[in-house]
């Protein structure tokens, strides 16, 4: 789990460095990073938005995509197309609201490989299960959930499946049992726990920060510079997430974009 | 306005499009009516509204204090402010004081679709009563096993007069008024059924949405449901592209058939004690499943299908008037548009913020322009049905809104909620105002006041 701890910072920092080289800085010189949400809030295409956000954030939330493209239906449909073409994979997050995390398939496969390697180092038996999982299950089952018998039948394409194998998959964090239905599993991202906790706490903190203001609004540029106490994730991550899920609204004023808590 | 009439006269605009243009202009200017008001006799939140289907004149409302009332939407009972505001009091109401009245909240009140002589109310006191409108007496009573969440009657029915009732029991019951008994019991849901809706294209098809998040399509001439909507089965666009759909299906079925045995159905017993998994190798399981499959009646196979349409309770269902699409609202604050022929999610995203999580809501649709009216907490939002964007927002209720009902003959929207009011939203501006627009009206500049 250690590499996950450093992942957000390095990838975010790496993302920033890359952007500084790629995009010419046309913004105010006193800003460290030349990227500001204010200037690039919306994109025209979902895959462009996805790639842009992949370079900045460790994981992408579906509501962030909604904040980056104007038409939500278009986002849904293009995401569906990308999912069917096996470019991205969508996972359901267990936050109680309708949250989905989006990962590019190659990133996910890399992560599965890393876990498999770590399990081998610990000398756990039957690490072939990860290979079978990758080959058979991930390839054919594109939905975020899978039923128990289907999982067994797909895994047995690789070899004989035992209960211990499925336990191993759950321990690795690749599967989670559903609470409402004892026979269904959700696909999960290993190491998502830290991110998920940060997401929930960050959301709460950001909303309470804005609600404490007299008019429940703030300039986007100012908001971006603040640091959140309870969440190691970037402020822009949370802003995009809340705009996309409808808790925050942005509107244009003469001195820039203003973010306001949406009532109702 | 005169221009429009002139182009109709000369034949440039055909009559249908003239009517449609007028209607859409009126609908896009809907606002809280300053000319019409319903005096609500209810002392609890109003849970259900319906305008009668034959004339479009009488409004039936059911409330949480066990009362049901009928209003005349076209004739006012008295007026205020020297005739400018029309007050509509209820024509009659049946409440707890009535000797046959409901004892607990009335959750649903619908008109008999053929004429306004009868109406049906369903209540949390486990009873469905059929009332005679002229005498205000309860004619038939049906006792249900649980609280009645919703009742529905088919507006197309030529050969049956069945009331579909969704209760907190897992079975949907169809009650026959003619015989006074239950004619069908539809099993398949795994939790209570919060919304029922008859199809607008076939008198035999019923859509039900349950507290388990599943939406099932039932043909009442057959046993079992013939479709369970799954939110992950999607189509990109209004009509499914045929080739891609079958390609995906064949690939999936090839995979599964190669693993041996038809493993699509879950085994019936699913006990999990401490550890996660069932014992037994996969081949043994395949044999076991095959034998279980044989024992089940083909109509009951659908009970094993666990697909969900929403990640929560299905709180509202509405079929479009052309019968091709079904809209469903869920407690996960999502509204989904389903194609009824293919059973796929069309992936239209409606920008709802939050919806009620525990109460059933009633949505309304209008055809031209295709709008969907949804109660979202304290406001009612109108979404364009094919774009998913919010076009109008109606703020007027003091508490959460439960139902919307659209009267297409007058282009008026009636909404009601927990603040016990029934509000009318009518097209802004009077007809005379529209006619006079083209002429110049000289303003009397001395006529002002502070």
Short account of what is shown:
Chain A has 264 residues and is of the alpha+beta class. Chain A has helices spanning 2-22, 46-56, 62-68, 72-84, 105-121, 128-140, 148-155, 163-172, 192-211, 220-225, 235-245; strands spanning 60-61, 88-92, 100-104, 145-147, 175-177, 184-187, 217-219, 248-253, 256-261. A three-stranded antiparallel β-sheet of chain A has the order 1-3-2.
Question: Could you characterize the architecture of this molecule?
Answer:
- The complex is a heterodimer of chains A (264) and B (450).
- With 264 residues, chain A is an alpha+beta fold.
- Chain A has helices spanning 2-22, 46-56, 62-68, 72-84, 105-121, 128-140, 148-155, 163-172, 192-211, 220-225, 235-245, and strands at 60-61, 88-92, 100-104, 145-147, 175-177, 184-187, 217-219, 248-253, 256-261.
- Chain A folds into 3 domains: 37-104, Arc Repressor Mutant, subunit A, CATH 1.10.10; 106-190, Orthogonal Bundle (Arc Repressor Mutant, subunit A), CATH 1.10.10; 193-261, Orthogonal Bundle (Arc Repressor Mutant, subunit A), CATH 1.10.10.10.
- In chain A, the strands form 3 sheets. In chain A, strands 1-3-2 form a 3-stranded antiparallel β-sheet. A 3-stranded antiparallel β-sheet of chain A has the order 4-6-5. In chain A, strands 7-9-8 form a 3-stranded antiparallel β-sheet.
- The longest helix of chain A has 21 residues, at 2-22.
- In chain A, a hairpin with a 2-residue loop joins strand 8 (248-253) and strand 9 (256-261).
- In chain A, 52% of the residues lie in helices and 14% in strands.
- Mean pLDDT of chain A is 77; it is low at 1-34.
- Chain A has 11 helices and 9 strands.
- Chain B has 450 residues and is mostly beta strands.
- Helix content of chain B is 13%, strand content 36%.
- Chain B has a 4-stranded antiparallel β-sheet with strand order 1-30-29-28.
- The longest helix of chain B has 17 residues, at 242-258.
- The interface between A and B is large, with 40 and 46 residues.
